[in-house]
Specification:
Layout (H helix, E strand, L loop, with lengths): L1 E4 L16 H11 L4 E9 L2 E8 L2 H12 L6 E4 L2 E2 L30 E4 L6 H9 L5 H7 L15 E4 L4
Parallel strand pairs: 3-4, 3-5
Antiparallel strand pairs: 1-4, 2-3, 6-7
Helix pairs in contact: 3-4
Amino acid sequence: MGMFDFIKDAGEKIFKPGEAKAEDAIAKHIGSYGLDIAGLKVEVDGSTAVIEGEAKDVTTREKAVLVAGNIEGINKVDDRMTVAAGASGADFSAVTGGSSAVVGAGGTGEWTSRTYTVQKGDTLSAIAKEMYGNANKYPVIFEANKPMLTDPDKIYPGQVLRIPAEA
């Protein structure tokens, strides 16, 4: 659990005038990626999204936070999700690339990935070179961000990506 910072003016444009509340739009958007979260509840206070529910695993939890944060108009995500019993994860408290996270020490369900905020001119290869020391490891980052990424050449400045531990 923790608070994650994003860039408010970057991200997918899912809010449409006259449509459902922001909470409903974000929950629907998270669901559109097929993320398995029991009892998903989203609250929006200004530009902060609060997400609750039980994710099937740590990866699903991480992706849900990033999906919500990578929405135009959201600049913070308060992760209050839990992870289903039996799922495990390691503590992660170091974040790179301009994103920040406040994550509790140790315990099941903690983040296992770092995050990286895409800068103008970045490519997945350049990010892989910076994160892993090897540009050819870009598929690791691409796979870790599916289904949010559908093409390794389609990333945008301000987007926050999952950077898994080196395999």
